[in-house]
Structures are given as structure tokens and as C-alpha cells.
Fold:
Amino acid sequence: MNIIVTGGAGFIGANFVYYEHKKHPADKIICLDKLTYAGNLETLAPLMEKPNFKFIKADIADRKTVYKIFEQEKPDIVVNFAAESHVDRSIENPEIFLQTNVIGTSVLLDACRKYGIDRYHQVSTDEVYGDLPLDRPDLFFTEQTNLHTSSPYSASKASADLLVMAYHRTYKVPATISRCSNNYGPYHFPEKLIPLMIINALSDKKLPVYGDGLNVRDWLYVEDHCAAIDLIIRKGKVGEVYNVGGHNERANIDVVKTILQQLGKPESLIEHVTDRKGHDRRYAIDPTKIHEALGWEPATKFEDGIKKTVQWYLDNRDWWMNIISGDYQGYYERMYGQREVLEYAKI
Ligand code: NAD
Ligand code: TYD
Structure:
């Protein structure tokens, strides 16, 4: 089978490329990636010479190029990871989120219509459901929960989901959608909470926790997300949405403290800073459907996954040093230089 993986030079896409390459060595993977600030070819270096892997630098919103790639590669399956993925950047500049996440998705769907495929899979997020209150631990996102977005990022991802459903209904594009909770693991770009905190702690830099640090995210080890997508594209039912998450809810402050503990660094490095605008309070997935329909369940417990992740950043300093020594410094200054330090009592 020929599988186009868009965004395969990013965090989850790259982990998925490695997962598929190992699990289905007979399949050919064509990675299509624009190589934005978040895409890193170094991540894919070990695969570059493999006969069943091909990398193409391209923008999913570039219709002519995307059509040419479909014509040449004749994909059976398309898995769309390509996206602008960081909420803070979407607050700073929403436009590129619409361009890539919405227009880019529509171009891929048009290509699927035009050339015909067996499956289009949209990698979506639990953020399309908005957030849940902290005082209602009985509430979870199910596939029936209304779309109710908070940030330009989540609004663009929800728009893409609506397009996917519309193309399925109107043009019979055989599509599926997965909505996963927060991922963590190797190759995670250091602008996101977990890698940012690991790297700052390693350099004895302050750890900027937004607001009171009590916002809750439902963390899933990235390989478990890859396994879920692999099951959905091979055994899932077209026209269906699958929520993916492992019932692993943690307050940000607790995640940060766990990282400090793993690294043997003091909690005095934590600094509460100005909150994110529109900050979602709690995400929590109900994964009953994917468990019952496809037998999926997470294999990695948070305690093990976070240890493996911290160790990966210790073992792969070159990978992240190359990132933080480049343009990323300007981003860090823009994003954190202006934030006020808040006086929260120790939590
Ligand atoms: P990432 O930012 O690490 O990687 C995104 C990749 O997409 C990069 O390689 C980038 O170069 C590429 N890209 C961006 N714009 C492109 C374009 N126009 N054309 C082609 N390639 C382009 O993102 P990630 O964290 O790996 O997320 C991947 C997908 O999973 C996204 O769709 C995201 O919404 C979704 N998701 C992420 C999480 C998470 O916790 N990170 C959770 C649920 C869902
Ligand atoms: P992030 O990794 O950006 O993922 P998302 O916003 O998509 O959930 O952030 C995870 C949580 O961590 C979120 O509640 C915001 C918070 N956060 C901080 O407190 N400090 C930071 O420097 C970052 C990047 C995130």
C-alpha cells in the first residue's frame, strides 16, 4: 500500500512514520511536509535512504503540487497530520492556521476526490470540544459532544473536521477522523509544555507556568496515539469519529513538578506567569468507542512514559540544541519576555 503522511517531519507525524515503517514494512510511505519551523528533517534522517520511504517538501495548501504528487504516487491512504499546532502562536497570528489547517485540508480532500483513495484520515484534536470545568470530574468529551472551540487553533481544526464530514457526505470521500488528547514523547518541539520544561530545567532556567497552573490536560504517550491511528485507517469505519485518550488527567503544575523530580532540580525554578488568553481549563477524553469498536487501549502508563521522554531529551541533546540555537530564540523572547511573573502562593 502507498500511504501519504502529511506533516511527517513534525512531532506526531514522525513518530507515526516510524511506527508504520516498523509495523508494516511492505507499505511505502510518502512523507509530504512543508518543513515549517516545526518540521525537522533530522528527525527522519535514518529513513531517507530506505526504498519504501520518500520525502517530498511541499505545502498541503499548494493545489497544483498536491495534485501532481497524488498523480505520481497514487496513494491508497492519506493521513493528514500537517498543521499549525501551537495555541500560543495561533493567538499571536491566526492567519496561517486558517491557511494550513483549513485550506490545506480542503486541498487534500479535493485531491482525494479527483484521484480516488481508499481512506483519508484527519488527525484532529480534543480541543475542538472546548473545555470542561474543574469542578465536574464526572464530565468527559465523547464523540457526541458539541464542537465549541476557544482558540484560533482549535477553531481551525474544528473547521477542518467539518469539511472532512461534508466531503464524506457529499462526495463520498471515505474519511475518518480521530480526536486525541495531548501527546508527549520523543521529537516533541520545545515550544510545548513538556519539552519546554525539560529543556529549561536542564539549563537551570525558570519554568514559566501559565496562571495558577491548575489547568488539566489528558496526557497520552505518542506511540499509543500512533497505534490508534494505525487501527483506524485499517479497521475503522468510514464516516466515523474516534476519540483517543487514556484517562490520564494531570494539572500542569503536577506535570512540571514530576519533570523537576526526574531531573533532580528544585521547585524554586517554577515561575507563575501571565495566563494564556482564553486558556482552556480542562480536557478529558472518553475513549469508550475506540476501545469497544477497535480494541484500542494505551500501552504506556504516564509514570513510564514521562521517564522515557525525559531520558530521550537527555540522550538527544543535539536534536533540541539545534532547534533552540536558531529562530526559536526570537520566538521565546517574544512569547515569554513580556509575561509578568505572578505571585501565586506555592501550590
Ligand atoms: P507539529 O507542529 O510538531 O508538526 C506539524 C508538521 O506539519 C511539521 O512537520 C510542519 O512542517 C508540517 N506542516 C505545517 N504546515 C504545513 C503545510 N502547509 N504543508 C505541509 N506540511 C506542513 O505538530 P504535532 O504536534 O505533531 O501535531 C500533528 C497533528 O496532530 C496536528 O494536526 C495536530 O492538530 C494534531 N494533534 C496534536 C496533538 C498534540 O498533543 N501535539 C494532540 C492531538 C492532535
Ligand atoms: P501546550 O503544550 O501548549 O498544549 P495545549 O495548549 O495544546 O494543551 O500546553 C499544555 C498546557 O500547559 C496548557 O494548559 C498551557 C500550559 N503551558 C504553560 O503553563 N506554560 C508554557 O510555557 C506552555 C508552553 C504551556
